[in-house]
Design goal:
Helix content of chain B: over 70%
Protein name (chain C): Tricarboxylate transporter family protein
Structural class of chain C: mainly alpha
Shape of chain B: flat
Strand content of chain B: under 5%
Helix content of chain C: over 70%
Number of domains of chain B: 2
Protein name (chain B): Tripartite tricarboxylate transporter TctB family protein
Strand order of the largest sheet of chain C: 1-2
Distance between the termini of chain B: 54 Å
Number of domains of chain C: 1
Keywords (chain C): Membrane, Transmembrane, Transmembrane helix
Organism (chain B): Billgrantia zhangzhouensis
Order of helices and strands of chain C: HHHHHHHHEEHHHHHHHHHHH
Chains: A alpha/beta, B mainly alpha, C mainly alpha
Shape of chain C: globular
Keywords (chain B): Membrane, Transmembrane, Transmembrane helix
Largest sheet of chain B: none
Order of helices and strands of chain B: HHHHH
Radius of gyration of chain B: 24 Å
Oligomer: heterotrimer
Strand content of chain C: under 5%
Structural class of chain B: mainly alpha
């Protein structure tokens, strides 16, 4: 463990030595860093970011300040980061959807190529969920059967992405769904729990009901099955060729110096092995921690964008595209 | 009549302003920027259009009622404001706007003493220690708040 | 189920001097931040969350509860003394608080506000503890149909009490509706009136809007007044012998306080409505049921009492769906979820089973925090009421600075500053031409909620209005709304006729 870390450190400083000279590589960071969260204080992303900042502070030897820039589902923070010239001193901790699907569904001033993805540190756990005691139980197949026989089965959507996925599924399976908009997990939960809506999308709210079983999962939208709901199949397993896996990533503007990005990546890799970070993420927020290096996460994000574009094309364009 | 003349004139002109604005919203802003697309429930523009209609109808009614009252009482429709009045009304806004432009360039913490100090001087405060203390304490407070308590760096 | 001994033990824990000290710390921090115009709960939270990392679970939660109460009470202080509410929900407190403070009774206004807020808060907390959690699932009976009907009712109800000119109030409300629709359309995802600004996609941010329209605009108005009658100080403290709250006056506000607590608790128990709706509805109810509705908005203690009692009753009541169903019903409830999460406790129905001691410690902490708030506020108001004796030419520049600082501190950046400035101009015109900011603000806050619920209702029902027959609660509110509208039309027609008769008679 320690040896490996040391190895990466040596290697990266050697690379940096060749590229930019010893001084720069050793110096970063020489002043406090800023970790920007695209959501308000107190949410799960914010809490995780604050623990991450604490851990990074120990790794980098400089204070890491946490700044909230809420708005547009994380989009405001990214729009500002794209114009940032801080050379990696300012970085955003956010979710991949903002950067992959955001620029496709709304007009944004940034896109995938405006940033470097230092590393992915956590895998999302979004899912299609339902309530207790539904006629179709908690099985995806039975739900599809039920929806086919009952036109007007209702679905609660929260994001443009899950709306597109369900529209794709509905077309694939020949379903006539009523798609109801809701605002966030707090808006979706009452509709699902009361039975007013048959099933819906959930970013992470369902994890809170894992023990009570009040919100069973029908389908995992992550790459693998969900940690807390191992019985629900993934999108691929259910026969839909979509990769909608959420990854929580750290991003810097695309012109950040290599040496700085590498130093950050090193610190992040160490953070994913730090107990504090693992505890808050896996035991509290209930999402698995992994370390995805820059090239891997960038490739995944690029593939996702391509996949979404194909999907949009298949569905005949987004409703508001002119 | 209980309303005095100024109120009637104010209602007339402000109503006219609101009505014009509402017409502008209805004919140009909402149709162009209100969003498009097909929706099962309500069209994206429905509520904004409704709001604009409410503004238009109410403002027109206001204009009409105050105009009738003005005509009945044979009052003039406008009285030119005293010279200097307009400037008297606008400069505080320009003053703050100028500082907002400054804050865009430099941190508020550094700009603040000048903002507070100069406004104090304009308002007629001449005791130097009052100006100094009033200008410095809030800025120092902001520095303590951002740099140490919230730890978001100097804003 | 938890035993009586355990409940007693948890109360004893809350009365331990250490926990009292922590709650007091939270109350003080929240109060100080809340009192400063331009700063509000969000700032206090941002200060507090890193601190709570190093506390035990109980201490962190006690601290945040204290903080939440402190900001609410502090925000009312600046609303009353300077007409600059820190939270949108304190805007209703301004309506009577500021006129009363201007009339030379700032202490009385502050005391009414403080007592009403503590009573509202305590009663709602007791309700939460005693009965509410087992009945939390009743809130699920209020689906999109019911919420849409209630929100329409609230809109009509509040529009009816706007006072001043009805037409002007309604026009301002129209503007509020338009601004309330800004952002991504919830159904189609189309960008509405955002003009390409990412910052507007989730709607016009409420904080710059409130600080601009109310606080900064108020400073421009006071600046104008100050320069007109230089030398005349705004409020003289302690000069008026009546500037104290007699027990009789306090007793007079009690019925209002109880009624408003009821309104606040009802609104709070339904997920998603929030304290602003509660405060304005209670204010409207108090005005409507008063013998002298015309004295509202001119410094009627009942107006302050109604707004403050309801505003503070909403918060404990919003914990009912939180602990009963796991649904955070308000911003402060969502905050609590975060705090629990840090310390490894999942908030929800299971808390009563898995961590009952935590739950009851929390409840006792809430009661202790309320009482501490009373003490802090009682002494605090003596100090802060002195703000009114600071000459206005010093207050105005400092408050202008604080408004800008509040925006910068919360990361809204240049966009936020421009927004605040634009709304300051807007608010200045509202005040100068006597357009009601109440209808504007309420329409702005209610529109997005109403739109969301209305759309859900229309989609779920497939546009079939007969569904109302299956939803008696929704139907009832629709009928109330119709009756209310008829009543409003009738009474304004009568007023108009009386005025005509008087004019003809004179």
């Amino acid at each position: 463990m320690k040896m490996k870390l040391l190895g990466t450190a040596l290697l990266s400083s050697a690379v940096a030595f060749g590229a930019a000279g010893m001084a720069q590589a050793d110096e970063f960071p020489t002043k406090p860093l800023t970790l920007v969260v695209g959501f308000g204080a107190g949410g799960s992303t914010d809490i995780q970011a604050r623990v991450l900042a604490n851990v990074l502070e120990d790794e980098l030897g400089q204070p890491v300040n946490v700044v909230n820039q809420p708005g547009a589902g994380g989009g405001v923070a990214l729009a500002r980061l794209a114009n940032n010239t801080d050379e990696g001193y300012t970085f955003v901790f956010g979710t991949s959807m903002t950067i992959t699907f955001g620029p496709l569904s709304t007009e944004t001033t940034y896109d995938l190529d405006d940033f470097r993805y230092v590393a992915g540190v956590t895998l999302g756990q979004s899912a299609m969920v339902t309530g207790e005691d539904r006629p179709f139980g908690d099985s995806w197949e039975e739900l599809v059967e039920y929806a086919r026989e009952n036109p007007g089965t209702s679905y609660a959507t929260q994001t443009a992405l899950d709306r597109m996925i369900i529209e794709y599924i509905a077309r694939q399976e020949g379903l006539d769904l009523r798609i109801v908009p809701t605002s966030g997990g707090a808006g979706m939960a009452p509709l699902i729990l009361s039975g007013d809506v048959d099933f819906g999308y959930s970013g992470g709210t369902h994890s809170g009901y894992a023990e009570t079983g009040e919100m069973p999962v029908l389908l995992s939208l992550a790459e693998d099955r969900l940690v807390a709901f191992p019985d629900a199949p993934t999108l691929q397993e259910a026969g839909y060729d979509i990769n909608a896996a959420e990854i929580r990533v750290v991003m810097v503007p695309k012109d950040a110096p290599d040496a700085h990005v590498e130093r950050l990546a090193e610190a992040l890799e160490a953070a994913t092995q730090d107990e504090r970070f693992i505890e808050i993420t896996e035991e509290r927020i209930l999402m698995p921690v992994t370390y995805l290096p820059e090239d891997e996460v960038t490739q995944t994000l690029r593939d996702q964008v391509e996949g979404y574009k194909a999907l949009i094309e298949e569905l005949g364009g987004l409703p508001d595209e002119e | 009549m209980t309303e005095n003349h100024t109120v009637l004139r104010m209602n007339f002109w402000s109503g006219l302003g609101v009505a014009t604005f509402a017409v502008l919203l209805l004919t140009w802003v909402v149709p162009h920027y209100g969003g498009r697309g097909f929706a099962v429930g309500m069209h994206p523009r429905t509520l904004a259009t409704l709001g604009a209609w409410i503004m238009l109808v109410c403002a027109l009614a206001l204009v009409l009622l105050s105009a009738i009252a003005l005509i009945r009482q044979r009052l003039p429709f406008f009285r030119l404001p005293k010279p200097g009045y307009l400037w008297h009304q606008t400069w505080p806004f320009l003053f703050v706007l100028a500082f907002i432009v400054l804050v865009d360039r430099f941190p508020l913490t550094w700009v603040a003493p000048f903002l507070i100090g100069s406004l104090l001087l304009v308002l007629g405060e001449r005791r130097w220690y009052v100006v100094l203390l009033t200008a410095m304490i809030p800025a120092i407070g902001l520095y303590g708040l951002t740099a140490h308590l919230m730890r978001i760096g100097v804003v | 189920m938890i035993g009586f001994d355990a409940i007693l033990a948890s109360f004893a824990a809350a009365l331990h001097y250490e926990s009292i000290a922590i709650i007091l710390g939270g109350v003080l921090l929240g109060y100080i931040v809340g009192v400063i115009p331009g700063l509000n709960r969000a700032v206090a939270i941002a200060i507090a969350i890193p601190l709570t990392f190093y506390m035990s679970a109980y201490a962190a939660i006690a601290f945040l509860i204290g903080l939440s109460k402190g900001t609410a009470a502090g925000s009312a202080v600046s609303a009353i003394l300077l007409n600059t509410p820190g939270e949108p929900s304190s805007a209703a407190t301004c309506l009577d608080g500021f006129p009363m403070a201007r009339a030379g009774k700032p202490r009385k206004a502050l005391k009414v506000g403080l007592l009403a807020s503590v009573i509202g808060d305590l009663l709602a907390t007791l309700l939460l503890i005693a009965v509410a959690i087992p009945f939390a699932s009743v809130a699920l009976k209020f689906g999109p149909y019911e919420l849409a009907a209630i929100l329409i009712f609230a809109l009509v109800f509040i529009a009816g009490m706007a006072g001043g000119s009805f037409l002007k109030g309604l026009a301002a409300g129209g503007m509020g509706v338009i601004l309330g629709t800004v952002g991504l359309d919830p159904e189609t995802g189309a960008a509405r009136l955002t003009f390409g600004h990412a910052e507007l996609m989730e709607g016009v941010p409420i904080l710059p809007l409130v600080i601009g329209t109310l606080a900064l605009a108020e400073m421009f108005v006071q600046l104008d007044e100050y320069r007109r009658n230089r030398g005349a100080s705004v409020i003289k403290l302690g000069k008026d012998k009546q500037d104290n709250l007699s027990f009789r006056e306090f007793k007079g506000t009690l019925p209002t306080i109880f009624k408003s607590t009821g309104v606040g608790a009802f609104v709070g128990a339904l997920p998603g409505l929030g304290p602003s709706v509660g405060a304005f509805m209670a204010y409207g109810l108090a005005k409507r049921s008063a013998k002298d509705p015309d004295s509202f908005g001119k410094g009627n203690p009942n107006g302050i009492a109604a707004a403050e009692a309801a505003d503070n009753a909403v918060i404990p009541a919003s914990y009912i769906p939180l602990f009963g169903l796991g649904i955070p019903g308000s911003v402060s409830a969502a905050l609590l979820v975060g705090a629990f999460m840090i310390h490894g406790i999942q908030v929800g129905p299971l808390m009563l089973r898995d961590h009952p001691e935590m739950l009851f410690t929390l409840f006792s902490g809430m009661i202790v925090a309320s009482l501490l708030m009373l003490a802090v506020g009682w002494y605090g108001l003596r100090i802060f009421a002195k703000v009114t004796s600071v000459p206005p030419h010093i207050v105005i520049p400092v408050v202008i600075f604080l408004c800008l600082a509040g925006i910068q501190v919360q990361g809204y950046g240049t966009f936020g500053l421009v927004t605040v400035f634009a709304f300051a101009i807007f608010g200045y015109f509202l005040k100068k031409f006597d357009y009601s900011f109440v209808t504007f603000l309420v329409a702005f806050i209610v529109t997005p909620m109403l739109e969301m619920n209305l759309r859900q209702a229309v989609i779920l029902s497939g546009g079939d209005i007969a569904i109302l027959l299956d939803r008696p609660i929704a139907l009832a509110f629709v009928v109330f709304t119709v009756l209310m509208t008829l009543h409003l039309a009738w009474s304004s027609y009568r007023q108009w006729r009386q005025k005509r008769l008087k004019a003809a008679g004179s």
